[in-house]
Amino acid sequence: MSLVIGVCTLEIIIPEANSLKDKRSVLKSMLEGMRSRFNVSAAEIEHMDLWRRATVGVACISNSRTFADQVLAKVVDWVEANPRINLAGVEVEFL
Questions:
Q1: pLDDT tens digits along 15-74
Q2: Closest to 87 in 3D by CA, of 15, 9, 12
Q3: Residue 93 CB contacts under 8 Å (≥ 6 apart), including other chains
Q4: What pLDDT was estimated at residue 2?
């Protein structure tokens, strides 16, 4: 049996955030949406004290690399469709 862990790092800009409270409101909604829609683990991992910038880590565990890649691609597409967020960078790796 094989175990595949897909990890996606998203660099996010939140242009409308004028405080940490604004930023956390947007991120909380986004992270909860990722978890419920795609059954992934997701958390803010860097830039916690900056108002308009965040780095989010997303992980998917599967027995198929293809499936994990598809799930992470759907997460990225979903984040890109969010009008409150600008996606500045994406990095995907498999462990």
A1: 999 999 999 999 999 999 999 999 999 999 999 999 999 999 999 999 999 999 999 999
A2: 12
A3: 6, 7
A4: 87
Q: Confirm if 31 and 39 have CB atoms less than 8 A apart.
A: no
Give the range of the structural domain holding residue 71, as residue numbers without chain letter.
4-94
Alpha helices (runs of H) in 1-95, residue ranges in sequence order: 20-38, 65-80
CATH value at residue 83? 3.30.70.1120
Per the structure, the count of domains in the chain is: 1
Dist CA 87 CA 63 (whole Å): 28
Which of 39, 24, 32, 28 lies closest to 74, judged by CA?
A: 39
Q: Read off the amino acid at residue 3.
A: L
